[in-house]
Amino acid sequence: MKISYHGHSVVKVVTGDHTILFDPFISGNEACDLDADTIKADVILLTHAHNDHVGDTFEIAKRNNSIVVAPNELANYLAAKGLNAHPMHIGGSHEFDFGRVKFTQAFHGSSYTEEDGTVNYGGMPGGILFTAEGKTIYHVGDTALFTDLKMYGEMNDIDIAFVPIGDNFTMGPEDALVAADWIKAKITVPVHYNTFPVIEQDPDGYASKVKTGEGRALKIGEELEL
């Protein structure tokens, strides 16, 4: 399994048979090194409906006939727009041919804004536990610090966790360090920072302070193999 980070909350996972994208905010994301017009994806996993997470889902999914897995209300909205969407809800899990997906809680908002300003309710935001090839990835999503993160760490053997550190819209570095201790991942990677001025942070500084497992600030496009 190969895992790479592409700015904001964009994560790509390549298994033996599938390419999976988390929250593919590519166009308009100056930090992202991917090309929304050419990227291949069999699967798109969405933590919530905000535009900086849904991103280029429509274009990528239509071109690749990707399956899009998302919280129920968001998935229903995407399906109404013609995408192949699979709805899930917080606490639910499903075994797909590409791996197992389970949605966890996240304390945040969730709405999708159309170009004309129309705001669509996106259901509850979530985090995603994704397991394939014997490895478990936890994309925490956009969230505040909350104590059930400790429970998720105790219940799951997490190989790598992607934790937001940007502050303002999510937890900041201090709370994210507590989250890393609770989640107990072998590797903790900071995400959701430096895309906008209000969420500017020092990812290397954060990673150096992670006490449980290894903190690692991935460079854009940097790839890990699990």
TrEMBL record:
Keywords: Hydrolase
Record Pfam families: Lactamase_B_2
Gene Ontology terms, MF aspect: hydrolase activity
Residues of the Metallo-beta-lactamase domain: 7-192
UniProt xrefs under InterPro entries: Metallo-B-lactamas (IPR001279), RibonucZ/Hydroxyglut_hydro (IPR036866), UPF0173 (IPR022877), UPF0173_UPF0282_UlaG_hydrolase (IPR050114)
Family to which this protein belongs: Belongs to the UPF0173 family.
PANTHER family: UPF0173 METAL-DEPENDENT HYDROLASE MJ1163 (PTHR43546:SF3), UPF0173 METAL-DEPENDENT HYDROLASE MJ1163-RELATED (PTHR43546)
Name of the protein in its database record: UPF0173 metal-dependent hydrolase CIL03_00835
